[in-house]
């Protein structure tokens, strides 16, 4: 009976490895990257190196004198140090990152924010710019009115100010481009698919503003003046139908790019957006598997030209 259980586990692992390698080949074919130019991809349990002179880094362990991968990802070697960077992981955070989060709790002098990380991040009252751009110390009245600024369920655009020893992220919203978000839609993708860029907020030519959060939360909203983009006052004005259609098409384009593991950036999103219009696909049709594949392939081919 024990032998059967062990055999089942072995077959299960073999099946997972087979599926993972099939996905890797599919992604490589879509992106158009040659095998020699692509980083080495490994699965859990795969031998990375039999050379004992290499140092063991994150995502690896030693077994019977050889270095083995503990996660699925790509191998990185710096001098004599070998690490494996996971293809899928929760957001770890980096100081200076612009992220999009959702308020989960209101506490004394602070808000707890879901930023797609292991722990809820922390936004302190002293680290936000008060309405009107006032630069002053927060008092007791400000603490009492915290829910008037941000309450549970609100979306915010903030910056990572500090990373604590336990992995807790401390956030800040000290200038006009950060603050509360409204009149838009939120989409969650893998943080590893977001292209690293200093500028995270982009006004796209199609008439929408997109915030590409480093934590994998992408927020799409109508284009508004910068001074109105992030405030603490909810805008209840009706959004025109054409703008809502544009936002819906952008959302589905980002979703199909993420589904096919294509890096998400303003260029790739606008390319997919234009391809979906050129091929005359309806917004709702962009969620069909065959249409998603057609638009993704057309996007990659257009970007590689």
Q: Overview of this structure, please?
A:
GO terms for molecular function: RNA binding. InterPro entries: Exosome_cplx_N_dom (IPR025721), Exosome_RNA_bind1/RRP40/RRP4 (IPR026699), KH_dom_type_1 (IPR004088), KH_dom_type_1_sf (IPR036612), NA-bd_OB-fold (IPR012340), S1_domain (IPR003029), S1_RRP4 (IPR048565). Residues 96-174 form the S1 motif domain. With 305 residues, this protein is an alpha+beta fold. The protein has a domain at 38-87: Beta Barrel (OB fold (Dihydrolipoamide Acetyltransferase, E2P)). Helix content is 30%, strand content 28%. The strands form four sheets. Strands 8-9-10-12-11 form a five-stranded mixed β-barrel. A four-stranded mixed beta sheet has the order 1-6-7-3, with no helix packed on it. Strand 8 (98-107) and strand 9 (110-114) form a beta hairpin. Residues 1-6 and 26-37 have low confidence and may be disordered.
What secondary-structure arrangement, pairings included, does this model have?
Blueprint: H1 2-31, E1 41-42, E2 47-49, E3 55-56, E4 60-63, E5 66-69, E6 73-78, E7 81-86, E8 98-107, E9 110-114, E10 121-128, H2 140-144, H3 146-149, E11 155-163, E12 169-173, E13 179-181, E14 185-188, E15 201-204, E16 208-212, E17 217-222, H4 226-229, H5 241-259, H6 266-278, H7 289-304
Parallel strand pairs: 3-7, 10-12
Antiparallel strand pairs: 1-6, 2-5, 4-5, 6-7, 8-9, 8-11, 9-10, 11-12, 11-13, 14-17, 15-16, 16-17
Helix pairs in contact: 5-6, 5-7, 6-7
């Amino acid at each position: 009976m024990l032998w059967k259980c062990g055999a089942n586990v072995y077959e299960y692992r073999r099946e997972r490895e087979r599926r993972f390698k099939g996905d890797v080949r599919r992604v490589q074919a879509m992106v158009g990257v040659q095998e020699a130019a692509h980083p080495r991809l490994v699965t859990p349990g795969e031998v990375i190196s039999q050379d004992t002179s290499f140092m063991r880094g994150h995502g690896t362990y030693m077994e019977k004198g050889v270095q083995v991968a503990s996660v699925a990802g790509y191998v990185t070697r710096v001098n004599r140090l070998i690490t494996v960077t996971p293809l899928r992981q929760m957001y770890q955070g980096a100081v200076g990152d612009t992220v999009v989060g959702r308020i989960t709790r209101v506490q004394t002098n602070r808000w707890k924010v879901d930023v797609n990380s292991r722990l809820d991040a922390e936004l302190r009252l002293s680290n936000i710019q008060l309405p009107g751009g006032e630069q002053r110390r927060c008092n007791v009245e400000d603490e009492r009115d915290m829910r008037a600024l941000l309450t549970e369920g609100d979306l915010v655009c903030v910056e990572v100010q500090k990373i604590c020893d336990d992995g807790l992220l401390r956030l800040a919203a000290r200038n006009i481009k950060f603050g509360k978000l409204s009149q838009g839609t939120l989409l969650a993708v893998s943080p590893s698919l977001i292209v690293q860029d200093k500028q995270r907020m982009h006004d796209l030519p199609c008439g929408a503003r997109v915030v590409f959060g480093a934590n994998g939360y992408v927020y799409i909203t109508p284009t508004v003046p910068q001074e109105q983009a992030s405030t603490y006052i909810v805008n209840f004005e009706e959004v025109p139908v054409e703008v809502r259609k544009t936002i819906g098409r952008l959302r589905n384009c980002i979703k199909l790019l993420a589904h096919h593991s294509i890096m998400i950036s303003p260029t790739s999103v606008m390319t997919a957006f234009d391809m979906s219009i050129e091929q005359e696909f309806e917004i709702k049709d962009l969620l069909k598997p065959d249409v998603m594949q057609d638009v993704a392939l057309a996007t990659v081919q257009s970007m590689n030209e």
